[in-house]
Amino acid sequence: MWAAFGRGAEVDLRGTTYPVRAELLVELLAGGGDRAGSRAGLRLRSARIVGRLDLRHAEITVPVSIGGCTFTDVPELTEARAVNLVLTDCALPGLRARLLDLRGDLALLHCVVTGPIDLRDAQVGGTVTLNGSRLSDRAEPSGDPVFPPIDPGTALAAGRLTVTGNLHARQGFVAEGQVWLGGAKVGGNLDLDGATLRHPTGAALSADRLTVAGSLTARYGFTAEGDVLLIHAQVGNQLNFHNAVLRGAGMFTLHLGGARAGSVWLTFAERPTGRVRLSGLQADSIFDDPATWPAELDLIGCTYRLLIARAPSAPHAPSPPVPVTVRQRLDWLRRSPDGYTPQPYEQLAEQYRRGGQEAEARRVLLERQRRRRATLRVPGRLFGCLVDALVGYGYRTWLAGIWLVGFWALGTLSFALDPSVARNPAEAPERNAALQALDLLLPIVNLGHDNAWKPSGGTEYVAALLVLAGWVLTTAVVAGLTRTLNR
Fold first, then answer.
1. Distances from the Cα of 188 to the Cαs of 164, 211, 238, 439, in angstroms?
2. Rounded to an integer, what distance in angstroms lies between the CA atom of residue 372 and that of residue 353?
3. pLDDT of residue 481
4. Low-confidence ranges of the chain (pLDDT < 70)
5. Contact 184, 210 (CB under 8 A)
6. Are 256 and 229 in contact (CB under 8 A)?
7. pLDDT value at residue 477
8. Where are the transmembrane segments (predicted)?
9. Which of 1, 131, 232, 392 lies most in the core, judged by the most C-beta atoms within 10 Å?
């Protein structure tokens, strides 16, 4: 071992029954690098490592590559400093590496880890790769107690982890327990494509205040059996759940409250089983699929510039656009279990206006007023129904024109059946019921019939109704025309 270590040569113990004492590896790594020279390195294959690999506070100056090995005890790397660490096809009862300072890469490839991996407050100068590994928290605790303790049910505790490069956990990565990345910082991309996270009694992925400079992708077969919590997460580019499966266990299947991202892809492979919260989410673009909209969706405070419907697609294939009507989008807004709030309607209307879809924007704002009316007391609801019927809360001013024609017809018929009396027979124009009704309906405009003819009997009330309706409806029509000309 000493000779191979000094040359950086590989030691393959395949076919032997001799175990390797952990104390020997500690002696090699903790101090042997200085005596062995610049080519030194630990490259060990197919060994059974017996005992506790205790490298706490150690300064490891040589690269470490261990493959196909079985550890009987949890390796201890708490507060150690190292060049890099690569474990391939290994079996471990856990890994303790809190406050680890790694100048290069950390890789656990196709490993089986039956106890928690502790990377809290660790710093990795390169890339973290967990591809193909299976993690769980089923092993019995061994060694000294972990402080601060890790929450039960946690397979990967990486709170406040700092990674300069990428963090990969894909290609068959499985975590039987919570993956905790709260407060972690990733300088590149966080790749969870095809990963499976299972924690049916809680959060499968808990990553509040996570910061990812690049993209966070959980696509193409990513499955979370448990909640995905990305509260106040910051993602520089894409936050992508394209073709993902989310099966929540608690209150929120997906929680993006207060998160920020360049674009958010919610084109799931199937409808999420629980509640999705986008409250406070800030994104330049949101992509979704009406076929997989969740039954409960919180949108209060969610802001976006573009809202685009796309269908799921295979890897490396473009996502085809999906036509979505304004009626479908209104159903999308109504999925909030907390009831009516105005902001989601205003945000959707603004998005339609930005795209030049004024009719759709007015439809959304009209629906906002109707939903608001349902929250009012009886007098407010009655008045709201009247305004809605007359002018559509100002968003359907063409209704006022229809009402004007209707009142004009009513006045014409009334004055024709019960003719008015001339105020001054010598100066009165020829009797014309249609012009008299129109003169009463149109404010300011004087056609010479209103002052010339005096209604009698029941037509007096008709005349008063025409004057009142004329002022209200004409004002609504003028307001609508002004809005149209301004646009």
1. 7, 10, 12, 73
2. 21
3. 59
4. 32-38, 139-145, 147, 476-477, 479-487
5. yes
6. no
7. 67
8. 378-395, 461-481
9. 392
CA torsion through residues 432, 436, 442, 448, sign: positive
pLDDT of 34: 57
In terms of Cα–Cα distance, which of 267, 307, 269, 270 is closest to 289?
267
- Domain borders along the chain are 1-141, 398-486
Contact between 127 and 103 under an 8 Å Cβ cutoff? The reply is no
Closest CA to 469 of 370, 376, 399, 418: 399
Q: Report the distance separating Cα 312 and Cα 175, nearest Å.
A: 25
Torsion of CA 425, 427, 432, 436, to 10 degrees: -100
Q: How far is CA 112 from CA 16, 62, 138, 151, 188, in A?
A: 22, 25, 12, 20, 26
pLDDT of residue 245: 97
- Beta strands 421-422 and 453-454 are antiparallel
Question: What is this structure's pTM?
Answer: 0.86
Which of 245, 238, 178 shows the shortest CA–CA distance to 208?
178
Maximum pairwise Cα distance, the chain: 131
